[in-house]
Amino acid sequence: MSYNNPINHLRIKHIEIMKINQSGFREYDARWLYPKDIDAEGIEELGKGLGTQIIKKTKKTNPKIIVGHDYRSYSEEVKSALKKGLISTGCNIEDIGLSITPCVYFAQFKLNSDAIAMVTASHNENGWTGVKMGIEKGLTHAPDEMNELKEITLNKKFLNGKGSTKDIKNFQKIYIQDLIKKNKINKKIKAVVACGNGTAGIFAPEILKEIGCEVIELDCKLDFTFPKYNPNPEDLKMLNAISKCVKENNADIGFGFDGDGDRVGVVDDKGYEVFADKIGLLIARNLSENHKKSKFIVDVKSTGLYIRDEVLIKNNCKTIYWKTGHSHIKRKVNKEKALAGFEKSGHFFFNKPIGYGYDDGISSAIQICHLLNTENKKISIMINNLPKTFQSPTMAPFCKDEEKYQVVDILVKQIQEIKNKNIKIDNQLIKEILTVNGVRFVLEDGSWGLVRASSNKPSLVVVTESSSSDNGKKKIFDFIDNLLQKTGKIGKYDQKI
Length: 497
What we know:
The chain is of the alpha/beta class. The chain has helices at residues 40-58, 75-89, 101-110, 143-154, 171-181, 204-211, 236-248, 276-288, 305-308, 310-314, 326-336, 361-375, 379-385, 401-420, 470-487; strands spanning 30-33, 64-69, 92-98, 115-119, 128-134, 164-167, 190-194, 214-218, 253-257, 264-267, 273-274, 295-299, 318-322, 340-342, 348-350, 390-391, 430-434, 439-443, 448-453, 460-466. Helix 6 (204-211) links the parallel strand 7 and strand 8.
């Protein structure tokens, strides 16, 4: 098997100097420091590239594109340049204004558009900008689409046309009401709602109040300087602030939303962070009671508990482990017609009849409220009732971009050989090897280890989980680290166990 970089290294001929750093074309979205790595002219070129791509894909002369932007001080300026490029190719723009990303995704269904483009750098620090984009409803660009967009844009293979733009007023209210009307809960849940002064602040508190929660707002006032911390539910500063607020207010749960509202982090009633993969398992259990024989998609960094969960087994549900990354999970949910997908980073995806298949942090929080409403138990008790596992954090050893995929290839072959020779790890044989995204090997008791290449920086990703002990988790890590060190291609870890 060859584990090649999904964004191919393009041989791009010399072009006129244009401020658009090609490294900004990521695996499933585009991000740059603005205006350092891309300026307004570069953004306009990106719009031309995206417009050309959409016209070719849809085979329409004047496709309809939904556009929105987040609350950063320069996002409207970026959006204006992007629209200019889109219009020059013949695209007709419908601009819904200040939005979270899921609101733009929703607009594609509600306004029946051909594509979407959301100007956001999500939870990145100020100075960053970017675009999340998609053509097929409910899906966003994956590596093939990003590679194609990169080639069109940097080689200036643009179509020329005459497009238009119009503003869609108050669309945010339509999105808000859609979530409220179908999600009323009976139990009064006291919820801390933290938005890090990001754009979710004008959506999440209102929606959760209206479905029936008692909401305690934390940093929900819009402030593009992000005065306390970045709106990132994996950021310890944000999690600590939510934890403190939950304990001070004796709240049932704390929700933390990222900068563009497509992810949610969870703090339990005791003030402890709950990993998203465990929350996903609780939601899957709850949904499976009314949706038997369903499929669930989880990323390869997620807990192994899904496979052997007694509730999911009883309800004849199947779990598929798939590639990490919101575009990958979204597409797999769509292809498999799965009921839901869960990614450890906090992207949750709910398909029909619950949602439209895309990731929406507020919709995810609502499903957790339904879980609390149905179970009538504290979230901490539900988590403690799950079989105990010992999970490592995500660890990232440095590895050059041009070498990281080859290193993963080496480990795939070595681990396969170890399995074939019945060599034991932590006194157990390897039972299964999964290579859809790097290599994840599963031991006899369900413990596992993962090595994959990071999709957006020069590093690998290492995660381990033991079903028995912290020591077991460490032994699996030591086994992986020993193989990595022998390659001679590994640098310093960002953190270690």
